[in-house]
Amino acid sequence: MAFPLRPLCTVALCMLLLPAVSAGAYEKYAGNPVGARTEAFEGSDAAMTETSLFVENDTIVGWYRTKSGQTSRIAYLWTRDPYDLDAHKRETDIPAGYAYPYAVRIDATTYDLFAVQLSSGALYRFRTTDRVHFSRLCGGPVLTGAKENPAVAYDAAQGTWDMLLEDNEGGRFRLRAYTSADGCAWTDHGYAIPGSNGNGWLVKEGPARYVALYGAFGGGAWRIAGASGPSPSDLTVGDPDLLGGITQGWEDTHLSDPDVVIVPEGSLQYFDHHVYLYYTGDQKRTGVAVSDMGVEEGIEVPAEPAAGEAWRGEGIAARMLGILRRLLGR
């Protein structure tokens, strides 16, 4: 999979594409959806949902779910264009019948992917080094029961794992928080966020700093919301509607499956924004919203920094100036 190195925009064009500060933390791409059905192996009912994406060698890579009737599959994609997730796709050897893929990067060549077996509701952990061939780890399911939509954060330095996992008790979707020392045996810490919610995305930003995006249900519709806190079991809800609701014609009442791609500093010359928030807009296709203000902007509850600790939200003006300097190579 060799690609010619090419910037996605010139410096001048990148500046023009920076979202207006008044637009909020995320601005939807006008050309949505960016992922739909293009291959014969993809489903007719759900062409591309539940993405789990990363930036690797200046290329977006990752996995997604596709579905026809009761047949669900997990496929792989790679692209140099963040607005075209259909550029390159392949089937994986994960058997049909698994859904809700969520991957974590273990090292430069290895990813672990968590997915739910639909027939049993059990959560399994797989490993790959070539993106399409997987081996199952842990000797069996890591959790059993009616589970959906895992969101996993792996701390390589500490060797610890955290997870948000959706369950459905009494017809109500809720995210529960779990921890593990090895990624196989998990401890349940109860519900993570008040209300009806699911479809989580989780990142650990520091020893006691977690940020989560998730689908929140209310008023007959799902929205993308955000929360942050010292642990997945102690999250405070910030912005309840990061995308500003249903604003594009292809979207319906089910905005969900948030998946954030954070562009590394060394790859910024190849992308026109710093943060890409992918989401399912109609339970069939994937859209994207962009930001240059940081994934946590607008969703965290402000708090005074500890003594001697730098303030992460140093202000929009300073953050935007830093982005412009990176674009100019200064």
Summarize this structure as a short list of keywords or feature phrases.
330 residues; Tachylectin-2, Chain A
Task: List the SSEs and their pairings.
Elements: H1 11-17, E1 27-28, E2 46-56, E3 59-68, E4 71-79, E5 88-91, E6 98-105, E7 111-117, E8 122-128, E9 135-136, E10 147-155, E11 160-169, E12 172-180, E13 186-191, E14 197-206, E15 209-218, E16 221-231, E17 234-237, E18 256-262, E19 275-280, E20 286-291, H2 316-328
Antiparallel strand pairs: 1-20, 2-3, 3-4, 4-5, 6-7, 7-8, 8-9, 10-11, 11-12, 12-13, 14-15, 15-16, 16-17, 18-19, 19-20
Provide structural commentary:
This protein is mainly β. The chain has one domain: Glycosyl hydrolase domain, family 43 (Tachylectin-2, Chain A, 5 Propeller), CATH 2.115.10. 6% of the residues lie in helices and 45% in strands. The chain contains 2 helices and 20 strands. The protein has helices spanning 11-17, 316-328, and strands at residues 27-28, 46-56, 59-68, 71-79, 88-91, 98-105, 111-117, 122-128, 135-136, 147-155, 160-169, 172-180, 186-191, 197-206, 209-218, 221-231, 234-237, 256-262, 275-280, 286-291. The chain has a 4-stranded antiparallel sheet, with no helix packed on it. The chain has a 4-stranded antiparallel sheet with strand order 2-3-4-5, with no helix packed on it. Strands 6-7-8-9 form a 4-stranded antiparallel sheet, with no helix packed on it.
